[in-house]
Amino acid sequence: MTDEHDPERESGRRLDAFVDAAFAFAVTLLIIASAEPAANIAALWQALGRIPASLGAFALIAMFWLAYREYGRLVPRRDTLSTLNALAIVFTVLVYVFPLRMLVESGFVWVSRGLLSGEKIIRTLADLRDLFRIYGVGFAILAGLFTAMYWRAMRHPQRLGVAPENLTQIRFSFEIWALASITGLLSAALTFGPMAKAPWLPGFAYWLIPLVIYLRGPVGRLLARRAP
To answer: For the chain, how far is it from start to end, CA to CA, in angstroms?
Structure first.
């Protein structure tokens, strides 16, 4: 049977199309959440001031979408568990889009010292703490679902149609998403203690992800040279 007529591959393509549509709907929710009719020039300027926050939130949603597209390229087949995993990602993204929008918009308003438009969502330290906790847990769950997808692809490569030359990339993606999930939990955990003296700390925890990715290559080569 050719790949073009493989029922499992065809099912995977249909599922991926559904996930693509769900991400597109999440972006629509993102835009609608900040949309207000501009009745005058002042309202128009206010709407334009929200563009950077919309772009930042859109970039994060696009990151998850592109990651799923890459997974679809590496793992062409779907079984029952991987299908349920993909549906869980869809549900989580649709819920996650709201705290994502609130956190990104609040961050842009704070960084710009109020020059950029945005709702005054954060009024107290407790508000910021709650938002970081909700966002961190949502980020950890979403990244954890990607981790589980790649873990299953590592465990059952033949069942899911993984080519042998793609196993290294799948392992790398598994490690990165596991790091992302741990970082989300770390950010949420930091709201319980140090945040009172360093309110910015839970947000800066996410910089661990690109830092570890950057250091992964040199550290890995160093350990390889020291290995017997």
So the answer is: 46
Cα 119 vs. chain centroid, distance in angstroms? 23
Contact 108, 56 (CB under 8 A): yes
117 touches 62 (CB < 8 A): no
Task: Measure the CA–CA gap between 16 and 18, rounded to whole angstroms.
Answer: 5
pTM for this model (two decimals): 0.81
Determine the angle formed by the axes of helices 7-34 and 51-74, rounding to 10 degrees.
170
pLDDT (tens digit per residue) in 74-130: 998 888 898 999 999 999 998 888 888 888 877 777 666 666 655 666 777 788 888
Amino acid identity for residue 157 in this structure: P
**Domain range enclosing 21:** 3-226
Cβ neighbors of 44 (< 8 A, separation 6 or more) are 38
Read off the tokens for 105: 């918009």
| Cβ atoms of 131 and 103 closer than 8 Å | yes
Look at the chain and report how many structural domains it folds into: 1
Backbone angles phi, psi at 144, to 5 degrees: -65, -35
Which amino acid would we find at residue 123? R
DSSP, collapsed to helix, strand or coil, labels residue 79 as: coil
Q: What is the pLDDT of residues 144-175, one digit of tens each?
A: 999 999 999 999 999 898 999 999 999 999 99
CA atoms within 13 A of residue 4's CA, in its CB half-sphere: 0
CA separation for the pair 118, 164 (Å, rounded): 49
104, 60 in Cβ contact below 8 A? yes
